Amino acid sequence: MEERTVTGVPGRALVDTARSVNAQLIVLATRGEHAARLLGAVSQYVLRHAPCPVLVVPQASKGL
């Protein structure tokens, strides 16, 4: 596993980085701020444009 910091538009930066490192999986956490929306704009962008599978998991509950 490799850790890196990138700048830019979040969804595009995630997708571009995944392409450049030949990622096998992208894991994103939901923010859980809006109960009516299942996925935010960044998650939707990544799901549509990622070069590899994407796993979206719920944000950990507070206190865990």
State the separation between the terminal residues, measured CA to CA. 24 Å
Principal-axis shape: globular
Q: In what range is the share of β-strand residues?
A: 5-15%
Strand order in the sheet with the most strands: 1-2
Average pLDDT works out at 85
The proportion of residues forming helix, as a percent range, comes to 25-40%
What is the number of E strands? 2
Q: How many strands, what sense, and barrel or not for the largest sheet?
A: 2 strands, parallel
Q: Work out the radius of gyration.
A: 12 Å
Oligomeric category:
single chain
**Order of helix and strand elements from N to C terminus:** HEHE
Low-confidence stretches: none
The helix count comes to 2
SS class: alpha+beta
Give structural notes.
The protein is α+β, with helices and mostly antiparallel strands and about 60 residues long. The chain is built from 2 helices and 2 strands; from the N terminus they run αβαβ. The protein has helices at about 10-20, 40-50, and strands at about 25-30, 55. Helix 1 runs parallel beside helix 2 (about 40-50). The longest helix has 11 residues, at about 10-20.
